[in-house]
Specification:
about 150 residues; Arc Repressor Mutant, subunit A; three-stranded antiparallel β-sheet; 3 strands; about 60% helix; globular
Length: about 150
């Protein structure tokens, strides 16, 4: 088997291609795919806000990475950072009205890129691919018990 045809390498190549395509499609909006992901995650919460730690867990990235992403979103007035009233040490990230509008509009861009990635796969094949990828992801969960 060629190195570029291993499961891990193919996943990386698809990940890189989707990220590149999405970033190119989002360029005019001034967002990156990671920033859009944070906006969408905030939009999908009932209170339209998350703790920084929750964002770290959702995206499996370090605190400095999340802080950088949130800082850039805050500079664009798409989120606001607040202190948690129940614990002043905790920072809450809340999506603004402008952030909601941007998330809704650019979510369509993301769906178009994902649709392109899935071209040639039937709906059943797409569901099966997602099912298998979830299993693979679970195989690497740190909190998984053996």
């Amino acid at each position: 088997m060629k190195r570029e045809e291993t499961c891990g390498m193919l996943i990386k190549q698809v990940h890189d291609a989707v990220g590149r395509e999405l970033n190119n499609s989002l360029r005019e909006s001034g967002l990156t795919h990671v920033q859009l992901g944070v906006l969408i995650a905030l939009d999908h919460t009932e209170e339209k806000q998350l703790r920084l730690k929750e964002i770290e867990k959702i995206f499996h990235v370090s605190q400095p990475t999340v802080v950088g992403v949130v800082d850039r979103l805050e500079e664009k007035n798409l989120v606001e950072v607040l202190k948690d009233p129940s614990d002043k040490r905790v920072r809450l990230v809340r999506i603004t009205e402008a952030g909601l509008m941007k998330a809704h509009h650019e979510h369509e861009v993301m769906l178009a890129v994902e649709k392109r990635a899935a071209e040639g796969l039937s709906l059943e094949e797409q569901k099966e691919l997602i099912r298998m990828l979830r299993i693979m992801r679970e195989n690497f969960r740190q909190d998984r018990t053996e």
